[in-house]
Write a structure and sequence with these properties.
By secondary structure, the protein is an alpha/beta fold. Helices cover 29% and strands 21% of the residues. It contains 7 helices and 10 strands. Strands 2-3-7-4-6-5-9-10 form an 8-stranded mixed β-sheet, with helices on one face. The protein has a two-stranded parallel sheet with strand order 1-8. The longest helix has 14 residues, at 69-82.
Length: 200
Amino acid sequence: MTQVSMATLISGAISGKLVSFPTDTVPALAVLPHKSELVFEAKRRPQDKPLILMGASPKSLWPYVEGTSAQRSIWEQMAQKYWPGALTLVLPASDKVPTVMNPSDPTTIGVRVPASKVAIAILSKTGPLATTSANYSGEPPLQTMAAVEVQFPEVLTLQPAELEAIKPDKIGVPSTVAKWTSSGWEILRAGGIQLDDSGF
C-alpha cells in the first residue's frame, strides 16, 4: 500500500524514499538530493537531464547556489517577483548540491518554490527535495495523482481522502526554466510563467 497519510509521506521522504505529490504545475517525483539516483532509475531518465531542487521558501534554497553579492541580488529579485510560482531558475551550484542531481553538469542547479499549499507543507518538513515531473522519460508528464499511482506503484503518494481535504491547486504545464549566464537570463524552456522584459 503506497497511498499514505501526509505524516507518513513526509517521514518516508525524510528516510530517503521516493514520494510524489501535487504541485502548481504537474505532479512531482521527489527524493532527498543525495538519493537522486532513485528518480533517474524510476523515470528511466538519461543522466544528462538534471533534476530540480524544490524548496518551501527562497531562503531554504539559497545555500545550494553560489554567486557574487550583485548576482545574488538579481536572483533574489527574480525570486521575490515570481516565487512561489512556475519558474525554475538555473544557477551556479554550491558544493552543497550532490553531483548525482546533475551528473552531466554539476556546476549548475535548477531551483524553484512552487505555488502549491500541499507541496510547501511537505517541503517545509522535509527540506528541499530533488524533483522532476512524474512520468517515464520522453513521455508526457502525468496530470493526476491517480495516474502516478498506476505508473509508479512503489512511490509513496497521498491517500485520496488527504488529497480531497487539501484540494490541490490546479495543475497544468511545467515550469518556465531560466538560466543565469554571463550575459543575463536565457530561457531554456517556456512554461507556466511568461517573463516580461523587466525579468532580464
